Amino acid sequence: MSTAVPIVLAGARGHGRWHLDNIRRLQDKGIVRLAGICELTPLTRAELPEGLGSPEQSADFGVLLDSTGARIAVICTPIPTHTDLALAAARRGVHILLEKPPAPSYAEFRRMADGVAEAGVVCQIGFQSLGSHAVPAIRTLMAEGVIGEVVGIGGAGAWARAEAYYRRAPWAGKRRLNGVDVIDGVLTNPLAHAVATALALGDTVRAEDVTAIETELLRANDIESDDTSCVRVTTAQGRPVVVAATLCAEDPDDPYVVVHGERGRITFWYKQDRVLLQRADHGPEEFEYGRTDLLENLVDHLTDGTDLLVPPDTTGAFMKVVEAVRLAPDPAPLPEQAWQLLPDEQRRVVPGIDGLAAAAADTLALYSELGAPWALPARTKEVST
């Protein structure tokens, strides 16, 4: 374990449990060592995965970084805390794996990214789908003209969340909390990977790659933020990116991104690393790919110079989408006749939304353009950099 990189995890409950398990996996390989856990309430012995030892625990992130000699901080805390915690690590020379979304506003994102760069440390943004080996493979297919000229990219995410999901934390489903931006909407948090992956496949990753953004933000649940939304990004390359997402699906399924070409299409189920290639005069071809873990990639970058997969500036376009959602009017509540409550699951469902999301990804149209009776006209935000 002498060469293992010491790590502090901030936020070990909820999604942080995934990071705990991943750190244990890498610790078993001798790559990292969990040196500390930052939580307001220490984890009990039962909450620690077997084999992680007895890491130091503290509610004070800075003190924990200092006392453990951590070289990497994994930050999986509420969205509004991301920037301050990342900068606290950067000031101490500690490198960072920062969960998505990296910040609740573009200004906070720039404050984080600029501060990290000035400190001379490395930051990896936790869009795990961008570690999929399918991403460069699809880009190669696009570049080689396998599906002809690319005309646009769509994405669809039909997920389900019970009403209790919005009671799991004070910030859940909020746009703001105590005057601070949160922006916990379906496009910016639960299905943020669909947005980021669609943008990445279109090589629209930096803020300057985005020229305009149209949003339609709605909600079936009794929350501040959106749970049923779509977005269309106008890009500098001239290829639109449209993503439709909901947490009120009738039949939840894996989200996907689809690249539309003049002579075919490429569908990517990013949680499965699975790709379907369909093109003229050929039978369908299906491929499965491996995936590089982002924490492991960060360690490899620090130890042998391997290229970092998701540095902050490659999420600038995604953060422009977050900013457009932030500046949009508050999401409109769907009329009561547009949704229904499933009593057994205590979750709200929007009938027909699964098909609408798929149609948006297929046609690059927004809900209002597809004739959804409850949709409002899109709000367009011209993007400046």
UniProtKB/TrEMBL annotation:
Pfam families: GFO_IDH_MocA, GFO_IDH_MocA_C3. GO terms for molecular function: nucleotide binding; oxidoreductase activity. Residues 137-266 form the GFO/IDH/MocA-like oxidoreductase domain. Gene3D superfamilies: Dihydrodipicolinate Reductase, domain 2, NAD(P)-binding Rossmann-like Domain. Keywords: Oxidoreductase. The keyword Disulfide bond does not apply. PANTHER family: BCDNA.GH03377. This is Oxidoreductase. It comes from Streptomyces dysideae.
